User: Fold these one by one.
Assistant:
Number 1:
Amino acid sequence: MIQMNNIVKRFGAQTVLTDVTFKVKEKEIFGMLGPSGAGKTTIINILTNQLEADGGNYSIGASPFETGLMLDEDGLYIRLNCLENLNVFADIYGIPREKSVAAIKSVGLFDAAKKTVNTLSKGMRQRLALARAILHEPKILFLDEPTGGLDPATARGIHKLILDLCANGATVFLTTHNMEEAVKLCDKVALLHKGKIVEQGSPAEICERHNAIKTVPDLESVFIKLTGVELE
Amino acid sequence: MRSIKAIFTKQAKDMFRNPMVLVQFIIFPAVALIMTELIAKSNEDIATNMFVTMMAAIFAGMALVTATAGVIAEDKERKSLRFLVMAGVKPHEYLIGTGGFILLAGLIASIAFGLIGVFTGIEFARFLTVMIMAAAASIILGAAIGIVSKNQQAATALAMPIAVILGFAPMIASFNETVAKAAGILYTQQLNVIVNDFSANFTKAITVIGINIAVLIILFVLAYQKKGLRG
Ligand SMILES: Nc1ncnc2c1ncn2[C@@H]1O[C@H](COP(=O)(O)OP(=O)(O)O)[C@@H](O)[C@H]1O
Ligand SMILES: [Mg+2]
């Protein structure tokens, strides 16, 4: 569904991605795990055609219309309310506005539908951004740190939504620096350090390979072992 | 067309809730009204429409540049524009949607100016024509500035001096022949010429403003190609 081959990206003299190669299968949740500055957002920006790579290639098994995304900034219209924000996009996609209501319900924001974005908490904004991403029922979702900066309860809500979406047939590519999240959600993960993938596979597989199974697979310790640095 | 309508509607809702932008559409006609009623009408030495023409020219030539630049720079700064681009919105659709509503608001303000001024039929028609053309020029210029700016602050820093030059060139021109000649190529000067004297060469004025619009469209396209809508 998504494939990246030997992608290289430079910003001036700094090489931000080196030889990044991975594959995401249909209906899989794939997590790109790495600390801040590893290059996660850059990978999403390349996959969503916002940035051009300096080498390598990639392919995506869905048209732009069939992809939904959550970026590191939510891009919401702050003076419009939740429903109005979604309706702008429903109108652009040419889908009925009822879909906006459905999306707002599915992220649990129905009671706040008429609230101006300005007045929402960070968690609510994040959920609204997710609602916008899933509004047109895309085949592929790109989620850049979907739970970044959220309290655990709100994060769990978002986790449940992502799992539901996947159960309904969506393929999810997400980035995170939270290894618990990666273990809980992802079928496959790649560990990214300074723009290089140092390990990839299912969380259990990876931990087994590195003897890091305690009670749960301990990706954090694998990461530290491979790179010498902590995730957060 | 769908996208243009969606963005136009969004812009309409947004502007009424954005005091920073809204105020610019109210303050200039309001000042024109107050000054005309309080000063011009009771003062023999001042032309009755002096404040109307002055405020209308500043509005169309300056306020619309800074307002448009601010609106577009905000969409860039908050990354709203990226989501539009990702949803398949084309640059011209975004511009027509956003700029189109600002132009409509500019038309309404122009009609207000026209009503405050004591214009007769043909004068009113000429006034509205040059106002709306100058407004279009300013909106395209503002859009180009918004596109090259990283954020709203940068947009203001760039738009202000440009708008001041465009807005004040006609005033300086009224004192200085050489400046008047040079300023003649600017749409703001032509706007000023017509609103101050409806018997002035109208064809020349709208031709010059038309050329300004064409040049500004090219400038906008260049700015877009260089910077893109994605910020
Ligand atoms: N537009 C840019 N220009 C220059 N450097 C950039 C740009 N975007 C990202 N970088 C650099 O690339 C590296 C990776 O950034 P990013 O992909 O945002 O990391 P992450 O999302 O994993 O935190 C960082 O060192 C960052 O400073
Ligand atoms: Mg990032």
Number 2:
Amino acid sequence: MDLSAEVCLKIYTDMWRIRLFEEEADRQTNLGNVVGTLHMYCGEEAVATGVCANLRDDDYVLGTHRSHGHCLAKGAKSDRMMAELWGKATGTCKGKGGSMHVADFSLNMLGANGIVGAGIGPTTGTALASKLRGTDQVSVCFFGDGAAARGTFHEAIAMGSLWTLPVVYVCENNGYQQWVPRENVAVVDSVADMAASYSIPGVSVDGQDVVEVYEAAGEAVKRAREGGGPTLLEARTYRFYGHSLGDEQQYRSSEEVDEWKENRDPIKLLAQFMRDRDWLSEKQDQTIQAEANAEINAATRFAEESPWPSADEVATDVVAPIQEVA
Amino acid sequence: MKTMAFNEALREGLHEEMARDDSIFVIGEDVITHGGPYKVTEGVAERFPGRIFETPIAEAGIVGVGVGAALAGMRPVVELMYLDFVTCAMDEVVNQAAKMRYMSGGQGSVPMVIRLPCGVGRLLAAQHSQIMESWFMHVPGLQVVVPSTPADAKGLFKSAIRSPDPVMFFEYKRIYTSKGEVPDGEHLVPIGLADIKREGEDATIIAVGPMVEKSLEAAITLEDDGYDVEVVDPRSLSPLDTDTICSSVRKTGRAIVCGEDSAFAGAVSEIAAMIGENCFHDLKAPVARVGSPHVPMPFSAELVKHVVPSSESVVSAVQAVMN
Ligand SMILES: Cc1ncc(C[n+]2csc(CCOP(=O)(O)OP(=O)(O)O)c2C)c(N)n1
Ligand SMILES: [Mg+2]
């Protein structure tokens, strides 16, 4: 599963798209345009991009409350996502979901999720569906280290293993569960170690190093696609922002955050990796960033110019319009 | 017409639907080895190998897997061993299955049936006898279906399996073995359509689940008093067929709403409020409710009979409304 220059460039571009999308969403929050809250993914971009670079369009992805990165890496359009964050009619979910429920079913990105640990069972279900249909689609579930404490983690992974389902359980271990450091509330340091309980492989990688993520995810996706069953893949990572907007972050020092931003930024690390191999010139780098910037600015314009949902939308999409018996 | 038991009607409906549509599969505890606690899934493993999954004891996992499979285009028929255990999977039902269509702006939906054996059967006390219809009526996005006869059980179950949205399918344990006639051939009962189980002029009994049978018995007793009562079976509590209920009440001018669950904040209360709101000027007496008192289900048979409403309680309620 060696990472080619071409794949690297795609990943690098996506990382910038995610970073700039979120920084813009944060800016739009301060302007009062994006409302509600945001769970920023900045700092964790290597996980979503490294995993999704191994996926096909028809593979399933389910996410978390922190899923802007998962959606963009799966191919979702930044303009429709931004419109969703504004609550506009043109949003991916017509403004009915918002940041915590962004979804693009046309890409089999079946949604972020506001409930911690709630995606693990459904992803096991999409994998079961693929197995029943005899397709070779793979399902990927992203979840945080906090989610690994929930019963859903245990219940779903046990079934994924029991039925040898084509699924990769990706734990983004960023060391914090809202405002609590993981070590205060968890007895197992590495979530990957928990895989042994389900007789599936548990793999832990440096989640800031997209090369490691890509390669480990590649193995896991291949295993799933070839009928080998689930893998629990843990990516050790870090979020640069607070848990959600307005978090004063008294539970960690600014030195710690600065250290990660300075030396462990996945974008910088990948840029260095590519430069070392002459895969990224200064000029290319500038172009990539400029294009990503233009895309995100266009996304904001799209959101701004889009109409608000009409009042009759309140009562649509509750159940199917015609309760016909086929 | 064939005569069969309630659970046989469900089983026949399940087999017919599974033969018709490959995307249907069964998932639940003990569903293969034992055919489910009420034998509804018996024979499925033999006839449809690979389309029935016997799970570990993991209700959140089971319903969660159902949600995902349904989002991916399958039609899971989920069996919970007892309705009571749905509390272990409330997130999956309420936050996931029910809201997916809405939160995704109509992109996704969860065509899943959750079968819920409920109420008093054998005496199993408070953690194995609940009903809880109103909990799910309260959640937009869920359909709540409560058949009272084998024919309705089969017809509604088949419609539930074909529904594009999640259905909470209530199966009262006590009537699994009760027999009734089921039409031959393809028999579908649309969700959201009430059924007038007996016509009458003097009062309308709206009866849910096993209260239908008890109300029909009560109606015969009430003939001796010279009362001719109508019995309406809503069959689905959400959506609720308000038209059929209201036109019956407008005709008779009296309404007695009966269910086995606690009347307090129960299904009967919503129906009573709806009648009050829509039929006030046609009512000759206040709307009455018959349900269980607001207590956990006791164990002792001596206590249970003070909790679960009987046909005598329906008779007294009608007499009170008539006077
Ligand atoms: C079931 C549930 N409990 C609590 C919350 C509130 N909550 C939202 S995110 C979060 C922390 C989750 O931590 P983790 O899974 O590690 O993900 P991270 O935020 O670190 O990405 C909490 C407690 C919730 N949304 N759902
Ligand atoms: Mg975390």
